Amino acid sequence: MKTLENNYKFLLTTNDFDYKEHLRPSAVLNYFQVAAGMHATELGVGFDDFIVRNLAWILVKVKYKTIR
After folding, report:
1. For 9-67, how does the pLDDT look when each residue is reduced to its tens digit (9 = 90+)?
2. Is the separation of the CB atoms in 48 and 8 below 8 Å?
3. Are 16 and 24 a contacting pair, CB within 8 Å?
4. CA distance 48 to 50
5. Which of 3, 19, 25, 56 is deepest in the core (most CB within 10 A)?
6. Integer CA distances (angstroms), 40 to 4, 25, 65, in order
């Protein structure tokens, strides 16, 4: 059964962090995008699945909030 929840592991690199060793917002958003693409593929609605049907899904706006 396909699930709407999943876990992914990523290897963070030094480029993902700023000079204060904080994770860069661009890195966070990139990992969100990669995870979303992998999950979409698992659900059968990924890039390759849509191309053969001449469809696309587009991310229009993204926002995240860090809670300390």
Report:
1. 999 999 999 999 999 999 999 999 999 899 889 888 899 999 999 998 888 888 888 88
2. no
3. yes
4. 5
5. 25
6. 10, 22, 23
